[in-house]
Amino acid sequence: MRTATIKHRGLRDLITNRYLYMLAVPAILFSIVFAYLPMIGIVIAFQDFNPIMGIWRSEWIGLQNFKFFFQGQDWIIITTNTVLFNVLFIITGTTLALTLAIMLTELGKNMGVRVIQSVMILPNFISWPIVGLFSVAFFTADTGIINQLLANMGWDEIQFYTEAKWWPLILVLFNLWKTAGFGAIVYMAAIVGIDKEMYEAARIDGASRFQSIFRITLPMLRSTITMLFLLSLGNIFGGNLDMIYSLVGDNSFLTNRTDTIDTYVFRSLRTTGSFGMTQAIALFQSLVGFLLVISANKLAGKIDKDSALF
């Protein structure tokens, strides 16, 4: 059968580009096996799950796991902390990454800029447990570097591991240190793709560097910023378990200000052993994140069609 005689557009494209689609088969199979098949485990959220009985024979209890979670006050605290941290991470991370990208681009191509680029992406490859070990050297009450500096200046020491008020700021700073450099590289790649003739025309018209940045660079980066924001929004209900648990651990003094959905689920699974309740919390987290991405993408598509992911 000739391709031209096939009326269905999708089938015709599949046959025409069959070799390209074959290249995607391993990725599709990987996604099915490791991303979609495990979703069968969602049913655990509605069961009194017993590992010995398995998914198919455990007792079905409906929404009891959800009621147990939402009847208390913990869900308000951890949900608020989760959203607050991720909003702060997105806003501060995007701002700093954009600032670094524009600054380095304006400095041009030289050895100093290349060295700075290499140094600022290095934290992205350091694991959070290693960062957590380093943080102890900074924040320990008696021997910590920060408290030693405060003591030398005649100021009172700060009990970082018993005073929770400092940790929202500490977590934001650590997140910036680890992620802003890599984000700046992404924005720099987008800036390089902007037509240089636009900048030359702006200079001829008498525009300053700051005017070129605000009138050309930032507007041309709008689609990239929106796309990265939408991708980040999907994780706004993600609790950054690796970062927070590596830095804070099970410190009960800091729980009210640092506990997020992921850390709560992880701790509950270790202490209560209730697979059903922890799965119910994780399902709540995933559904809200999914709805946020869909809603934000639809809103972005209405404002600017080129900014929507799908």
Give your account of this protein's structure.
- It is a single chain.
- With 310 residues, the protein is mainly alpha-helical.
- It has one domain: Orthogonal Bundle (MetI-like fold), CATH 1.10.3720.10.
- 67% of the residues lie in helices and 1% in strands.
- The protein has a two-stranded antiparallel sheet.
- It is flat.
- The model has no long low-confidence stretch (mean pLDDT 84).
- Residues 79-296 form the ABC transmembrane type-1 domain.
What is the secondary structure topology, with strand pairs?
Elements: H1 9-16, H2 18-36, E1 47-48, E2 59-60, H3 64-70, H4 74-107, H5 111-121, H6 128-139, H7 145-152, H8 167-192, H9 196-204, H10 209-220, H11 222-233, H12 241-247, H13 255-258, H14 261-271, H15 275-303
Antiparallel strand pairs: 1-2
Helix pairs in contact: 3-15, 4-8, 5-8, 6-12, 11-15, 14-15
Domain ABC transmembrane type-1: 79-296
Membrane topology: Multi-pass membrane protein
Transmembrane segments: 20-46, 83-104, 125-146, 166-192, 213-237, 275-296
